[in-house]
Every structure is written in C-alpha cells, then in structure tokens.
Design brief:
The protein has 256 residues and is α/β, with parallel strands linked by helices. It is built from 8 helices and 12 strands. Helices cover 29% and strands 21% of the residues.
C-alpha cells in the first residue's frame, strides 16, 4: 500500500474545493467531482465495484478506518480532525469520505425501467425516491429541470448508496421524455384507475411530481395511464416519496 499523503493546511486546493462543494449543492457540476461523506456511502460505492479518485481520512481514525480498497490505485489523504469538520455537511462529522469523479450529464436510456422526477424540490424526497426505485428494480432516474440536484450531499445521504446502482440523467425537459420507449405512468390524488386494481406494464416510467403542484398537466396528458392510490384513512394525499414507494412496490407485485 502506498503511504497516505498528510495535509495540514486549510489552504490546500482540494480542501478549498470541498468546502465550496459543501456550501453549494450544485458545485459538482462545475468541478466534475462529488463528495461522499461517511462509512455507509463509501462502502456502498465499493460494493458496486466502483472506485473513488481520492479517499480522505481524519487523523484520529487513521489507520483504523482502512477499507477494502486498492490504495495502489486510489490516492489516500489524512487530514486533522478540525479540517475534516470544515468539509462536512453534518452536525457530527464523519471520520472519512471519498472524492468521486462525477459521471456528468448522461443520455436517456430508451428502454430502461425509469423514474421521472418532475420538479421534486425536497432533497430528502428525491433521495428517498431514488432509494426506493433501486430497491424495486428501476435502473434509471430522469430529473426534469427544477428538481433538486441529484448528486448534492443531502440527496446522496437520503439515497443511502442507491445512486451507484442507477443511471442518472439531470436537467431534462419534458420534450426529452419523447426518447423513452416505455409507457409513461402518472399518479393523481383524485383521478385515474385504482393502483391496486390496474394492470401495470413493465418496463415503464413512473412520473413523480412537485410536492405541492403534483405532475404537470402536460405530462398528465402524455401519460399512457393515470393512477391513484387508495387511502381508506381519508387523507387528501401522500408525501411524494411515500407515494413513489407504494407505486414501485405495486409494480413489483405484478412481476412476482
């Protein structure tokens, strides 16, 4: 194993860049790299057979936090705990993180089981939807303009590593969805077939809409199916992440 590089200056260019990325949820688009904080996300990346560009460890945890990683091909850096706090978005900073090269803007895969995010703005909702999508066999996420940044730290934490199993497409328009060659399905609080009774296609593309406004009218009109979730408790609607999980699960039941 190569010896790690010890950095003690907060003016180091990499640390300065990471501080900017923590403050700006879309900075990864400019810098071409993503900051992954913590043991769980880092292990999830490795479990998918992927490797970071750089592994960063807090001084107090080195060498106890060694990973199943080839340090002959990955650069390891050790920094003081105080500097680790400065590049953390968490109240209690983690003792390690990875710098991952961002895959960049990707093209839509035409036939993939897909989740379309129509201006879903809450980062926690976006990450939770990505996590549920991966769990139920979807392989692509297409985020329309106005959706929270897919690779921001908050979305990554909520996704719990599901990002690394998905083909991620950002900044798309409704017109771009014409590239999909799978049926478009949308949810509605008051209209459409009951989800638990409907014949659901596979593969398909579920559209999950804005927290307050729902799916846009134009996408509603494009959809092959409009579906609603039975709510015997009488609530007006479900949180979009909860609704997404119910819909994805319903698809999985049809496959079993």
């Amino acid at each position: 194993m190569n010896a790690p590089l010890h950095i003690t200056s907060r003016d180091n260019p990499l640390l300065k860049k990471l501080r900017l990325m923590v403050r700006d949820s879309t900075a990864y688009r400019k810098h071409g790299q993503v900051w992954l904080e913590g043991d769980h996300l880092c292990r999830a990346l490795l479990a998918r057979g992927k490797r970071p560009a750089v592994a960063i460890f807090a001084e107090s945890s080195w060498p106890f936090s060694l990973f199943e990683i080839d340090f002959l091909t990955v650069k390891a850096i050790v920094i003081p705990d105080a500097l680790m706090k400065e590049i953390s978005s968490l109240e209690t900073p983690c003792n390690m993180g990875f710098v991952l090269d961002w895959p960049g803007t990707q093209e839509i895969q035409r036939h993939a089981p897909t989740v379309v995010l129509d201006r879903v703005q809450d980062a926690g909702n976006v990450g939770s939807i990505i996590r549920s999508a991966a769990a139920f066999g979807f392989t692509q996420v297409v985020a329309l303009k106005g959706t929270a940044a897919l690779w921001s730290s908050k979305v990554l934490r909520a996704g719990m590593g599901a990002h690394f199993a998905m083909h991620m497409v950002e900044g798309s328009s409704e017109a771009d969805l014409q590239k999909l060659e799978v049926p478009l399905l949308v949810t509605s609080s008051h209209h459409g077939e009951w989800l638990h009774k409907a014949a659901l296609p596979w593969p398909c593309a579920w559209v999950m809409g804005h927290e307050g406004q729902g799916v846009s009218t134009s996408l509603m009109n494009q959809a092959q199916q409009q579906l609603r979730i039975a709510q015997p408790g009488g609530e007006e609607s479900l949180n979009v992440a909860a609704a997404a999980a119910v819909c994805f699960y319903a698809n999985s039941l049809k496959l079993s």
